[in-house]
Design a protein that fits this description.
Strand content: 5-15%
Bound molecules: erythose-4-phosphate
Distance between the termini: 48 Å
Largest sheet: 8 strands, parallel, barrel
Oligomer: single chain
Strand order of the largest sheet: 1-2-3-4-5-6-7-8
Radius of gyration: 19 Å
Order of helices and strands: HEHEHHHEHEHEHEHHEHEHHHH
């Protein structure tokens, strides 16, 4: 048995990709996208017809072109997954609760125009205070949310209290931060701070019976994935899916509800002031959240420019 098949006994495997062919190849249960992944897809000549359709449907409105692009890639990806696709809200709205809600509703309405039901979509929002507040309200109107750019325990605790469907704690970017801080090329898996962060969050959620699911994300190596076998979901990039599939072996369960229940993890309740204070106490969390927002915004801007120049050069007829 491959490590991938074995891992599927313990965790729901998700493809972290905007590459429609890769999703079709791996046939995961769900798939996740982000602005950086969709920029890469939009630049790829294989998906030019999707880009052209987005330009055509946007009828000259540059913001609408990016929204349509995200949703059209989501529609294509959904042809190859039985479950859900995650589509991210504009990073520029990370500190705008009302703007995030409006954008989420807009994305869901575009999916609806394509005949895609909201149950098949997870709206990704940055795990800022405003993003978490927006997600809590969206959940109450039946729009399911996936909280991204999640690095600190305070972010995880606040997301659980908001009753969001799913969180995506980032393993690899935490690992990157500490590698750089310690000036080392690697951190052994037993000491990996990204893995430790997800273990703590998972145990905390299960200990207190939160309904929010935990999806480990942003992996740099196979060992990090295998160290989280048993986590509710794991979203994995195609190159790592390939490695897991090519390696025979048995994954061993590392996380379980039973073990979580044995942990001494007191309940934490955070109002806005406490959230901001606790998150700010974590230099890695503050640094990586801020950087993550900047990076997704930069890639979304590049994508917007690409769409504008393609629209100008191709003059695609409006739909
Ligand atoms: C998935 O939801 C995340 O956007 C993704 O895993 C981030 O991965 P990266 O840190 O490799 O960009």
């Amino acid at each position: 048995m491959s490590q991938l098949d074995s891992l599927k006994k313990y965790s729901l495997v998700v493809a972290d990709s905007g590459d429609i062919d890769a999703v079709a190849k791996w046939k995961p249960q769900d798939a996740t996208t982000n602005p950086s992944l969709l920029l890469a897809s939009a630049e790829d000549p294989r998906w030019r017809s999707v880009v052209d359709e987005a330009i055509s449907r946007a009828s000259g409105d540059p913001d609408a072109a990016t929204d349509w692009l995200f949703v059209l890639f989501g529609r294509e990806i959904l042809k190859h997954v039985a479950g859900r696709v995650s589509t991210e809200v504009d990073a520029r709205l990370s500190f705008d609760e009302e703007g995030s809600i409006a954008k989420a509703r807009k994305l869901v309405s575009l999916y609806d125009k394509l005949g895609v039901k909201r149950e098949r979509v997870l709206i990704k929002l940055a795990s800022t205070w405003e993003g978490i507040r927006a997600a809590g309200r969206l959940e109450r109107e039946g729009i399911r949310c996936n909280m991204t750019l999640l690095f600190s325990f305070a972010q995880a605790a606040a997301c659980a209290d908001a009753g969001v469907t799913l969180i995506s704690p980032f393993v690899g970017r935490i690992y990157d931060f500490y590698k750089k801080l310690r000036n080392v090329d690697d951190i052994p898996i037993e000491e990996d701070p990204g893995v430790a962060s997800v273990v703590r969050i998972y145990n905390y959620y299960k200990k207190h019976d939160y309904r929010t699911q935990v999806m480990g994300a942003s992996f740099r190596k196979v060992e990090q994935i295998l160290a989280l076998a048993g986590c509710d979901l794991l979203t994995i990039a195609p190159d790592l899916l390939q490695k897991l599939n090519a390696t025979p072996g048995e994954a061993e369960r590392k996380l379980s509800v039973e073990e979580a229940k044995r942990q001494n993890l007191p309940r934490v309740e955070l109002d806005e002031k406490a959230f901001r204070w606790e998150h700010n106490q974590d230099p890695m969390g503050t640094d990586k959240l801020a950087e993550g927002i900047r990076r997704f915004d930069a890639d979304a801007r590049k994508l917007g420019k690409l769409m504008t120049s393609l629209a100008a050069s191709s003059a695609v007829p409006a739909k």
